[in-house]
Amino acid sequence: MTAVIADNLPAFVIIVPLFAGVVLPVFARRQRLVEGLVVLAEAAGLAGVGFLAYIVFTHRGTDWVYQMGGWPAPWGIELTVNSLAVFFLFAVMAVSLPIALFTMGNLKDEVGSNKRTARFYTLFLLLVGSLAGMALANDLFNTYVLVEVATLSCCGLVSSRGTPRAAEAAFTYLVLATLASSLVVIGIGFIYVTTGHLNMGFASQGLAQAWQDRPHVVWLAISFVLVGFGLKSALFPLHVWLPDAHSSAPSPASAVLSGLAVKGYMICLLKFLYVVFGPALMKEFSVDRILVLAGMAAIICGAVMALPQDDLKRRLAFSTVSQVGYIYLGFGLMDENGLAGALFYLASHAAIKSTLFLSAGAMIASAGKKKISEMAGIGRKMPLTAAAFTAASLGLIGIPMFSGFIGKWYLIAGSLDTGDFLPTVIIIAGSVLCAAYLFPVIRAMWFETPQKAKQESTVQQECKTAVQHAAEHMPAGPGVPREVRVKDPGAAQKLALILLTAVIFVLGVVPGPFIELARSAAAELLMLR
């Protein structure tokens, strides 16, 4: 049995979360069992990825090509285990496991009944399984299918709160995501018409031979794929769906959407550009310059839009628009340091933004306040949650000893390697703007005290006192009121925040193995190895 699992591990990494997600509704009434199955599926996925990483490190330079059903390409479906696949799989499993832990015991408060909770977990596991498939899939058709599974799962997660605002945000996301999917599938159609293949390797060989005869068709294919995945990953100015979707979703959904789902679409785009079209065609059609310019615009514009936001989750959502720009900029540098920095920053941002959304959700749930201006002094009442938010903020800004610094360092190194200093200036300016919209939140949490109420009329003051008394006290027994305290969440939520914060520190202090894996993936994509 163990040998069978080891031989078919690439398929199991995808199938296990998908299968677990499908069977969860059967046990909808047994919430503890559902939560246990979700965590077990996540832990099994992380263990499987660890074994795949061991294989990649011990067989350096050799990809493990797994053929589904034993059918070879181009007729059969291939799963390719290489440095890029393992790197992204690690990011997916290492972040989704703490998010699953965070949902234990308190997800029902955000989404409603046990049945709705089971549906949330089903969508969550379908998203995780599709992201794993995106990392491993080596053909265009199945990549597109997995992208659609992820898209529909994301729409369901956004609407899982059940409020009119969430429904509107989910509908907007669905419409734009459908448009993006149409663009992607048209691009795939152009590639198939030109090459006659859907396997990425065979399609790449066909494009290398045929692009000079059909340059306009190839340019259209690149354009449709770039715009389609740019819309799905919220690349500025195609980001219009993201702020409402991420801010109105439940906090665990916001964490997985911003931390992982957006990154899955970027990994798919990276594979289309570097594996299918190849670095030579990217330079021929100036795709590298487009990516760098779009990334720089996103860094600045996303940060500027985040500054005036008083709603904490909306500020974090606009921050995602800015942070996506760093990754796109690195994709366009076409340098080993720059591409490795983009991949490392992708994994770093996944952990950081998940921590920010989860800790923000915990503070909002405990204090009942969404606005930053109303969160004065909350850090002294929720020290662990606020400390996790602070650590993640420092990582996002790029302070040394945190993971964001390493990613930005390699992005700057890649920019300098290419001889273009403007991306370096933009990266530094983006970090300053990031500090400008995150430091006020940290200051409010730790160093400010709630302002005293202004003088009001006697009637107004009496009404306000009555409302506050009703909101802050609950009956603990017959006639005995019990005060609701603003405090850190439960043990499972604390463990999740600690694990994610530890990931941010480890990537910042001991980045060696992860940077080595990212550099190996970058070298393979650039065809340097």
Key terms:
529 residues, mainly alpha, two-stranded antiparallel sheet, 76% helix
Structure description:
The protein is mostly helical and 529 residues long. The protein has a domain at 298-451 and 483-529. The chain is built from 22 helices and four strands. Helix 9 runs parallel beside helix 12. The longest helix has 34 residues, at 251-284. It is globular and about 70 Å long.
Q: Output the number of helix runs.
A: 22
Low-pLDDT regions: 452-483
Could you describe the largest sheet, including whether it forms a barrel? Answer: 2 strands, antiparallel
Oligomer: single chain
Question: Whole-number radius of gyration?
Answer: 23 Å
Distance between the amino and carboxyl termini: 36 Å
Overall pLDDT score: 85
Q: Strand fraction band?
A: under 5%
Level of helix content? over 70%
Strands of the biggest beta sheet: in what spatial order? 1-2
Counting helices, strands and paired strands, the structural category is mainly alpha
Shape call: globular
The ordered string of helix (H) and strand (E) elements is: HHHEEHHHHHHHHHHHHHHHHHEEHH
Number of strands: 4
Topology:
Elements: H1 2-7, H2 9-23, H3 31-58, E1 64-67, E2 78-81, H4 83-103, H5 107-111, H6 114-136, H7 140-158, H8 164-195, H9 200-210, H10 215-232, H11 242-248, H12 251-284, H13 287-306, H14 312-333, H15 336-367, H16 378-381, H17 383-397, H18 403-417, H19 422-447, H20 458-472, E3 473-477, E4 480-483, H21 491-509, H22 512-525
Antiparallel strand pairs: 1-2, 3-4
Helix pairs in contact: 2-3, 2-6, 3-4, 3-6, 4-6, 4-12, 4-15, 4-21, 4-22, 6-7, 6-12, 7-8, 7-12, 8-9, 8-10, 8-11, 9-12, 10-12, 11-12, 11-14, 12-14, 12-15, 13-14, 13-19, 14-15, 14-18, 14-19, 15-17, 15-18, 15-21, 15-22, 17-19, 17-21, 18-19, 18-21
